[in-house]
Amino acid sequence: MIICTKKMDYRLGSQCQFIQNQVMVNSEKDRASLLCMKALANRGRLDTVSQQMASHPQYLESFLRTQHYILYMDGPLPLHYRHYIAIMAAARHHCRYLVSLHSAQFLRVGGDPLWLQGLEAAPLRLRHLDHINKVLAHQPWLTAHSHMQALLKTGEQCWSLAELVQAVVLLAHCHSLCSFIFGSGSDSDTTPTPRVHHGTPPGYCLCDAANGNTALSPPPAGPTEKTLRRRDYSWEDHGFSLVNRLYSDIGHLLDERFRNVASLPFPHSPDLKRAIWNYIHCIYGIRYDDYDYGEVNRLLERGLKLYIKAVACYPDSSKTPLCPLSWAPVKASDKVHVNLLVMEARLQAELLYALRAITQYMIA
């Protein structure tokens, strides 16, 4: 018996393609589910940040891998130091979500509860880190060789080069994560503040615990120093090799994050995606000689630029009400994508300035 396929209601090739696409979709959903289960198992709860990023499972996987490595895997800093540095970084932007999360982790790994009463209760080495924390959080373009020299000078309370690199990576990671949390509104999903058994001063707030001071910081001014040209210092040619040499494997993990966010499917023009990234770097004083910055004004609506600048530079819900993303058309997935671009571009910018200063110290 011969079956004629010409009169069939569907083409076999189309059906195979449909099945293949369904398998890919199901595979991506399964991957996202597994990643969420992993986050749930690690933290005992599925946090809002992981939920937001789960729409991009490949990126979420690289993000979680990097974060786990920085906080828990091989490195010169003890675990309680890492979580306290994360508290210091998050406190710069009054990010209650991260401060609460890392305060709980700090106590869980054996950190001294007294340190949570304020930075003045922490060891001198950590207090020395306060200034570079402020500079990287608010004016990273001012990061200088002298900042690194002050931390690395000989003495009982000095930092080793490997310790400082890990601390800088952790600070930049948490600062940029504050931007994502602020942009996604995840700061409202705070965990209960860990109880400090030794008492706290009146009016105590965990966000001030590692802030260095309780006064509001002035808003960051734009870069006034010489612009950082990509040809002079870039992640690909300079930052990657230095950080990977001084903090084993972290360069590969960070590079994977940058590549993943660059390769995420974007429903709009790839030129728009590049304009968003370059605009964020432009805000931070980083310029690309081969890019026409007229594209930024042509492609980015004013509302989108205001949103990006607020999330990148002022991610502090206690001082900055987040303006809605008035970008048409905008979907929830588009907003997550923009927030990821802001986070990764800011992370790379902070790292470039910090690593350049370390390079200058090493060759001085």
TrEMBL record:
Q: Which domain of life is it from?
A: Eukaryota
GO terms for biological process, alphabetical: cellular response to L-leucine; cellular response to leucine starvation; negative regulation of TORC1 signaling; positive regulation of macroautophagy; regulation of response to reactive oxygen species
> Reaction(s) catalyzed by this protein?
a hydroperoxide + L-cysteinyl-[protein] = S-hydroxy-L-cysteinyl-[protein] + an alcohol
InterPro entries the UniProt entry points to: AhpD-like, Sestrin
GO MF terms listed in the record are: L-leucine binding; oxidoreductase activity, acting on peroxide as acceptor
Per the record, the major location class is cytoplasm
Keywords of this entry: Cytoplasm, Oxidoreductase
Localization, per the record, is: Cytoplasm
Q: Name one GO cellular component term.
A: cytoplasm
UniProt record similarity statement: Belongs to the sestrin family.
- Identify the PANTHER family for this entry: P53 REGULATED PA26 NUCLEAR PROTEIN SESTRIN (PTHR12474), SESTRIN 3 (PTHR12474:SF1)
Q: What is the name listed in the Swiss-Prot or TrEMBL entry for this protein? A: Sestrin 4
